[in-house]
Amino acid sequence: MDYILFIATLVAIYSILTITMNILVGYIGILYLAHPAVYGVGAYTFAILAKGGTNYFLALLAAGAVATILGLIIAMPTLKLKSHYIGMSTLGFLIICHGLFINLKGITRGALGIPGIPRPTIFGETLNTNLSFFIFTIIITTVIGIILHRILHSPFSKTMEIIREDETAAKTLGKNIIKYKLQAFMITSFFGGIGGGLLASLLGYISPTNFNIDELVLILTMVIIGGMASFWGSIVGATIIILIPEALKFLDIAPALIGPLRYGIYGMLIILFMIYKPNGILGRRTNVFSK
Does the predicted model carry a pTM greater than 0.90? Predict the structure, then answer.
């Protein structure tokens, strides 16, 4: 039962991370590949503050705030670029941040990572059990999900979709494209940073390997399979991709082969979906990678 609750909690957290990435990749059409760096900064911020005795909820908000600052740092030079050059630049930011996670040993402990990340304490009770933390996470992710759902079904979302389809038309309508893109980066980064904090709290330990290119493949696969510009598709994609490696554990496969096989499956799924179902399972548009 504890195992099932842990996986369910992981699905809830990755659903938020996938929805937030989908805002930029799906809704506004930016080839954004730096998301693991952004929620990684959120996770490290949370871990350092929470271990230092900062209130759990303040640490989560700080994780979102610091991630937002990084998101803006990434956005400002990136938005001057077009098409796949945006992807190359944001991938570069991911590589830079991953290198910093390894080399800033005085802050991140480098490859050793940060252990002993606490779980929340509410009314004097620490939520150490998987059941209590699952309920807590579901409440937090539901609140975040409702906020994001309202944003993605608002006039703001419609404007993002206009910008995605035709920036010239958006300019003709008097829309400030840079402002909308910056706002999209801020929303993605803030809630992604909180998701990173929740992930750190669930795992109890983080290291640079949690936020590298492998993690990018994972989160990108969730977005593509679930569907571009789809709130519910992001949740479906996160659920499927989290469950795949868990299913592999029940097969008669050498443990050393599970990791390579998992990423082989992810790669195959991306190729098949981009060829035969580029909109994903619940997506509403052709994905940005086909541009």
Answer: yes
